[in-house]
Design brief:
Layout lengths: L5 E4 L6 E6 L3 E6 L5 E5 L4 E3 L4 E2 L6 E2 H11 L12 H11 L10 H16 L6 H33 L16 H34 L1
Antiparallel strand pairs: 1-2, 1-5, 2-3, 3-4, 6-7
């Protein structure tokens, strides 16, 4: 969970993200309405990365408390900061049993839950494991795309290449010698028959005319 660049400004509600730094001020953007405003050196600015909660032992970084809430709620919204103070205190005792109840004020407890829900809604609360998985997926995607593109180009080249087909030699049709001989012999015989018929018919016709 990365809270770098997220700040709280005293006298202003909500949280802000630092966008740019000028000579005498910084430009920040509200996580709620996305409005950009300048913040000056005279403003009391607190970076969420630097905030800790008092305990009876060592101070607990705010980031670790947010992680505990995130895991308890399975990445969903938590109790509203507008709830009864007793409920808010009991909830904090569940995730941080040793917080210093004398030095952590009611207003501080409200801010913990208000800021958590605000960050969650803005999409700023992402566990490191999830980020690593997304980065690995994004890194693998271009490689896969490149491989697919190379395969497509290879396929296109293969389609453009001329295809040489081997023509099989035409099979010679075997004709039996007897068939060839028969066909050759039959032709003159048929012609002779037709010629004979013509000669016989001619005198018969001429005879009819003489009568």
């Amino acid at each position: 969970m990365d809270l770098t660049g997220i700040i709280a400004i005293s006298g202003k509600s909500g949280l802000y993200k630092v966008l740019a730094q000028g000579k005498n001020n910084i430009i920040v953007e509200s996580l709620e309405d996305k409005k950009r405003v300048p913040a000056y050196a005279s403003d009391k600015i607190s970076a969420l990365d630097d905030i800790s909660i008092y305990t009876y032992d060592e101070d607990k970084p705010l980031k670790e408390i947010f992680i505990s809430i995130f895991e308890k709620e399975s990445g969903k919204e938590t109790i509203s900061h507008k709830e009864d103070q007793g409920k808010l205190k009991d909830y904090l005792l569940e995730i941080l049993p040793d917080f210093d109840q004398e030095r952590v004020y009611a207003s501080d407890i409200k801010k913990i839950f208000q800021w958590y829900n605000l960050l969650l809604k803005a999409g700023a609360l992402v566990m490191e494991e999830v980020k690593e998985e997304e980065t690995a997926t994004e890194a693998a995607a271009p490689k896969e795309k490149k491989t697919t593109k190379a395969a497509a180009a290879k396929k296109e080249d293969a389609e453009k290449a001329p295809v040489k087909e081997k023509k099989a030699p035409a099979a010679k049709k075997a004709v039996p010698a007897t068939v060839k001989k028969t066909e050759k012999a039959a032709a003159p015989k048929a012609t002779a028959k037709a010629s004979s018929a013509k000669k016989v018919a001619a005198p018969k016709t001429g005879s009819s005319r003489g009568k």
